[in-house]
Amino acid sequence: MSARVRPAEPRDAAALVELASSVSAEPEGWLLADAPWRSVVGERRFIRAVRRHPHGALIVADVDGAVVGRLSLARDPHPASAHVADLGLMVAAGYRRRGVGSALLTAAEGWARSAGVSKLELHVLPHNAPAIALYEKHGYEREGYRRGHYRRPDGSVVDVVLMAKRL
Q1: CATH number at residue 49
Q2: pLDDT at 82 over 90
Q3: What are the DSSP calls for 22-88, one per residue?
Q4: Rounded to whole angstroms, how far apart are CA atoms 62 and 60?
Q5: Residue 136 and residue 134: Cα distance in Å, rounded?
Q6: What's the whole-number mean pLDDT along residues 64-92?
Q7: Mean pLDDT, the chain, as a whole number?
Q8: Cα distance between residue 36 and residue 67, in whole Å
């Protein structure tokens, strides 16, 4: 299986909303969402805004024209840490452990280098062992553990592992 990795386009909005909705509905709780994902119109606006903004990127992976993965990047806005970008990754359940996440992470590094970013960081839930293994395979290291960092819709809080890679 070969995924094509490319910048997101406004025509991807509906597929991206569906991907986020499906991943956030998984019982393992991989994606924390306190409200439904953006609407298709809102996602289309977001894609257009990211495409105009030099400090971020939205990259998709598609297989046979179907969007199966999404990676977002945003440079830290503080001048002292403008060399750092935060990333978020999601892959459709049926395409995990098939190279899609790896392809997206490789694309993220390409964007980072071209944007002058020398450190990529992310948060991952401690129980998401497959994602942690993927990130470690790509050279990410655990930098910290943030207790009670995110609040779930039911009011409970969850910890996250902070991981980063220096380029």
Answers
A1: 3.40.630.30
A2: yes
A3: HHHTSTT--S--SSPPPPHHHHHHHHHHHHH-TTEEEEEEEETTEEEEEEEEEE-SSGGGTTEEEEE
A4: 6
A5: 5
A6: 96
A7: 93
A8: 19
Give the residue among 72, 128, 127 at the shortest CA–CA distance from 97: 128
Let me know if residue 131 belongs to a domain: no
Question: pLDDT tens, 90-128?
Answer: 999 999 999 999 999 999 999 999 999 999 999 999 999
Q: How many CB atoms lie within 10 A of CB 124?
A: 21
Per DSSP, 2 falls in state -
User: Is residue 11 classed exposed, middle or buried when 0-12, 13-18 and 19+ CB atoms within 10 A define those classes?
Assistant: exposed
| Contact criterion met (CB below 8 Å) for 64 and 104 | no
What's the pLDDT at 64? 93
Q: How many domains does the chain have?
A: 1
